[in-house]
Amino acid sequence: MAKATSSTAFLLISSLLLVAPHFSISEAAAPIVSGLSWTFYQSSCPKVESIIRKQLQKVFKKDIGQAAGLLRLHFHDCFVQGCDGSVLLEGSASGPSEQDAPPNLSLRAKSFEIIEDLRQRVHKQCGRVVSCSDVVALAARDSVYLSGGPNYDVPLGRRDGLTFATRNVTLQNLPAPSSNASTILSSLATKNFDPTDVVALSGGHTIGISHCTSFTGRLYPTQDSTMDKTFANNLKKTCPTTNSTNTTVLDIRSPNKFDNKYYVDLMNRQGLFTSDQDLYTDKRTRGIVTSFAVNETLFFEKFMEAMIKMGQLSVLTGKNGEIRANCSVRNTDTKSYLATVVEEGLEKLEAWSQF
C-alpha cells in the first residue's frame, strides 16, 4: 500500500512539472531590499537551489502533503518578526518559543525536520554560508512549484535571527482562521500588503489540510449562512463535534495540486475558514477572488509577486543576525557575532567623529 501511494505521488509530481510555468522576475518588476540578491550564492554555494529541489522531489514522492506544511512554515516565519527563521528556534530558559504559541501548534513537526535535513545537505556541500531562513524561503518556493504552481526566482541573502518572538507578538501577527476580511486586510496592510496581495497569498490554501477545531465554529451550534449546505453536511460527518481531532482538506476540488481551484471553492461557498470565505463575501475582495477563479495565470503572477514581497519582510542581512549551524538553536560560537557588534559600533563612532 505504501509503495502504491509513493508511486501515485511520483506520477502526480511528474505530471505537474510538465505544465508548471516559470516566471522570471526582474529587479524593476520586483524591487528587493538592500542586502538581498538574485544571485547571492552564485560563488559561495552555486548548487544550493538544486540541492534543495532534488531532495524535496524525493520527499514529495513519498508524501506530497509535506509541500503545504513547508509553505505554511514560510508564512508563519515571515509574518512574525520577519523572515529570519525565528519560528525554527526551540524554546529556552528565557521563555517559550514561537512554536509554542497557539497559531503554530498545528505546524507540522515533519516540516521542521525537513528544513534541518536540507540545511545539513547544503552545509555539507558548501560550508556554513546558507542561512536557515533562506532554506525555508527556497523550500516554500519549491513546494509551490513541485505541487503544480509557478516556478519563480527568489532573492537570497537573509540571515538568521538571534531571538524568537513572544507569544503575544506571535498572536498579534497571525490572524486566526475565524477572522473576517476586514481583520485580515487591516492586519496585512500594516505589512504593506494591498487587497490583491492578501487574496493572492490566501491562495496558498489551495493545498494542505486543517484540523476540525479551526472551523467547527462555522458548523456548531448553528451553521454559517455563507457556507454551502451540502458542503457543511459533509464537514459535519468528518467533524461530528466541536472538539473533533479529525482533519480535512482545504481545497475540495484539487487538494494536492497548487492551482486556482481554491477560488472556485469560494465562489461556490465552499471555503473552509471564515478568513477564506469572507474574501468572496466582502465587496472589497470579491472581484479579485473572481478574477483569480477564471484566470489561473493571473493568480500565479500575483501570488508570485506577493510571495517575493512577503519573503523580504524585516529581513536581516549583511552583518546582522547569524548563519545557524543548527536551525533550531542559536549558535554557541558568538565570537563572530560580538565582533560584528563591535565593528558596527566603531563605524558609528567614526561617523560621529566626522561632525
Summarize this structure briefly.
It is built from 14 helices and four strands. It has 355 residues and is mostly helical.
Quaternary state reads: single chain
Q: N- to C-terminal separation?
A: 74 Å
Could you tell me the strand content as a percent range? under 5%
SS class: mainly alpha
Major sheet: order of its strands? 1-2
The coarse overall form would be globular
Low-confidence parts, pLDDT < 50 over ≥5 residues?
A: 1-8, 336-355
In which range does the helix fraction lie? 40-55%
Computed Rg = 21 Å
Largest sheet: 2 strands, parallel
SS field, number of helical segments: 14
Q: Which H/E pattern describes the elements?
A: HEHHHHEHHHEHEHHHHH
Output mean pLDDT: 89
Structure description:
It is built from 14 helices and 4 strands. It has helices at 2-19, 48-62, 66-79, 109-126, 132-146, 167-173, 181-189, 195-202, 229-238, 261-267, 274-281, 283-294, 296-310, 335-353; strands at 22-23, 151-152, 209-211, 247-249. The strands form 2 sheets. The protein has a two-stranded parallel ribbon with strand order 1-2. It has a two-stranded antiparallel ribbon with strand order 3-4. The chain starts with a helix and ends with a helix.
